[in-house]
Each structure stands twice: as structure tokens, then as C-alpha cells.
Amino acid sequence: MATANTKLELQYGSLSIGEDKIISKAKKAYGKRDITELNIYVKPEEGKAYYVVNGDPSKSGDFELYD
Fold first, then answer.
1. DSSP β-bridge partners for residue 51
2. Is the pTM of this model over 0.70?
3. Which single residue of 9, 27, 35, 42 has CA 20 to 30 Å from 66?
4. How do the pLDDT tens digits run along the chain, 67 residues long?
5. Where would I find the beta strands (DSSP E) of 1-67?
């Protein structure tokens, strides 16, 4: 089966943010390049997302979703 191009856009109320922007913000918030696994948990009602890098809770944090 062929791979389909996909796009994810999170919309909450009048706010909107794309998958690429969420991933970019998580990587920027972490600030290091040793990422082999990045898990992101989005909480639109809080306007935040939480991330865990490489499955290590000590390499976790959060960031604001909307500018």
C-alpha cells in the first residue's frame, strides 16, 4: 500500500496549530539534539503541550501551544 501524505491541524475554539509547529516547539523547548524519540501530549484546554524525550522522564517539559 502506498504511503499517503498526511496533515494534522489542532483546532480549539478560535485557535489553530499544525503538527509541524507543535513538533518544532517541543524540540525548541527541549533545546538539545540528542532526540531519538519524542512523545508529545497536547492539552488544548490548558493551551499547553507536554513532552518526554527518549522515554526519560527527566528529559520532559512543557510549552505554550499558541503564540
1. 40, 61
2. yes
3. 35
4. 778 999 999 999 999 999 999 999 999 999 998 999 999 999 999 999 999 999 999 999 999 999 8
5. 9-12, 15-18, 38-43, 48-53, 56-64
